[in-house]
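ok trying this again, last paste got cut off
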Amino acid sequence: MQPQGEVMSSTEEQEKWLADAMALVQHHAFFMHRALDANNLRDALKFSAQMLSELRTSKLSPQKYYELYMRTFDELRMLEVFFKEESKRGRTNADLYELVQHAGNILPRLYLLCTVGSVYIKSKEAPAKDVLKDLVEMSRGVQHPIRGLFLRSYLSQISRDKLPDVGSEYEGEGGNVMDAVEFVLQNFTEMNKLWVRMQHQGPAREKEKREKERSELRDLVGKNLHVLSQLEGVDLEMYKEVVLPRVLEQVVNCKDDLAQYYLMDCIIQVFPDDFHLQTLETLLGACPQLQPNVDIKTVMSQLMERLSNYAASSPEVLPEFLQVEAFTKLSNSVVKVIEAQPEMSLVGAVSLHVALLTFILRVHIDRLDYVDQVLGACVKKLEGKGKVKDSKATKQIVALLSAPLEKYNDVVTMLKLVNYPKVMQHLDYETNKVMATVIIQSIMKNGTYITTADKVDALFELLKELIKDGEGAPSMDELDEEDFKEEQNLVARLVHMLVNPDPEEMFKILTTARKHFGQGGPKRLEFTLAPLIFSALKLVRSLQGQAADDDSPVSLKKVFQFLHQTVEALSMVPAPELSLRLYLQCAEAASDCALEPVAYEFFTQAFMIYEEEIADSKAQVTAIHLIIGTLQRTQVFGVENRDTLTHKSTGYSAKLLKKPDQCRAVFACSHLFWVEAEHGIEDGERVLLCLKRALRIANAAQQMSSATRGSNGPMTLFVEILNKYLYYYEKGNPQVTSNVIQGLLELIQTEMQSENTAQDPGVDAFFASTIRYIQYQKLKTDEVGERYAAIQI
């Protein structure tokens, strides 16, 4: 037998001590078996007591002690069978029960007593309740934590199937369920005391080691609660009046962090959901009384998760949640726990609110006021803390904000939550941006339309980190260019989700959005104002044809003023090319609404941008073609205004840097004098002037090529001009005759065959296609065929 009180040592020593103890157990077990085979009770008890004495060791760690315990447990099973046989041979169980108490040492005596007690109860020679009560009381004789825990664990194990529960064979004379509950509770209480006492044995420097060892033994204590939960006779009433108060009393009074956390978790896991729901107040009442270092947030989160799972799996119990006021009790408990633990970390407090919010979204999804209440409680906790720096707390706040967004799939519903933006204010700049991005993506994914100016205002307050520079934002130079573009393109897409069929409300929406975008700085305006302008142009289309009333809240005049101011703001960025395009879009819209002065003003602004801000030659080419195309489609102008604008267009065309660009722009201007529409223009002479001017420029380009390269350039421009001549010839322009086309065809053919002309397969193919087209037209038998008959190929 090992001496007591020796300090545990290294792993190698533990292995050696265990091996020695195992060898002695095996040695004594051998002689015990021999005595059992010989039906020698006295020797059997003697050797079994010696075997059990090995469990008196203090040298082994809990893990090694458990291995030793299991080895002796197996041997005790054999002894129990022998005791049953003894009773059949005429010896009473009462005698056996008395006999084993003569063992010299208390630990072997109690193990033998429990073994005989099991047989005694089974024989029903004595009431189960009396034997159980005697055993649980006698077990107090062992107060060493590890030895006492394993002894009581053995008692719990051998008595599990012998409790006088409802429907059990031991009920009645053997006792009732109350006796069974009392036995288990008493055993649980004593085991918990022993378990907690382990923490206070040994030097302070080994505190962590002891906590680890205690953790390994926790299931021995928790099994008692599992036994209680399995008793048929423990109904809601008994659980409410007896079991839960007694268990919680032990939990609170033990004042041990590890025990309180584990036992609260056990209670939540082993007892039924409906018990928790009906005893919510009692269970939650214990939470603020726990030690400050207990991870109460996890305990309460698990409770709320169990209850919400219960509601989700059994919708018929939802009225019970309302009846017991589950949310109110949980909410009050969260507040009390946070108040009772002033040292609780921010992440812990926010985690509790996340768990409570998750509970609401699963049980009371229709109660937005509950959701807002939780967010409000979180705001109160965050008050005075500014931007949250702790990454774990930030993660929990994001989880809190994401939960309603994911559950409702509707940002409009979320905008009704007054405290939502207040929580967002506590996120740092980068996290706020991520959250804002998530909100926009939710809108786009679910096709959520924001239909009022108030909602737009509220939404943009949530998205302000994307729309304008917020507190803690890096300078524009420090921003990642690609990320910035992606974010702003997302905001631009959002604009198209701001819609309302009522023009008045739609105009308010546009004005509200413009107010927010205006605070975004020049780099953002380039992305955000363009979609706003197109949205306003859509509003123009809906107002088109309505009677003009400048005093009404929304009119064409007011919308065009809004458009003018918005494009002007964009031009200040500066974004000249985009501004010019948008001015032209607005001009065309004004033309469709028969607002000549407005259309003229937009064209004027476009020309001013062209003159003052577009210096790049390629950009000038693109711009002048846009101007020509828009002006050609614009039918609202009178003769004077149209002449002014067409004159400007032809003048700018002729001043482009490169001759080929000049040539193409000039012959494009010919379309300004030939518009086939009602009240259109068909000025054949000015068309011909443009085409002749284009030819002169093409000739000049050829001469320049000859002077610089020593050979004429390709005939591309001439073939393009030929196609323009053919277009107007088909349209019936009297100034474009077959002789003119014939002359141009011969010129092109002569030049292309010249040795001085650079060969280009592309031009050859282009010209060949043009010839085929003429031949095709000549084959027609209608008026077109007659016109083409005059052209000789």
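PB: full thing came through this time. Residues 1-9 have pLDDT under 50 and may be disordered.
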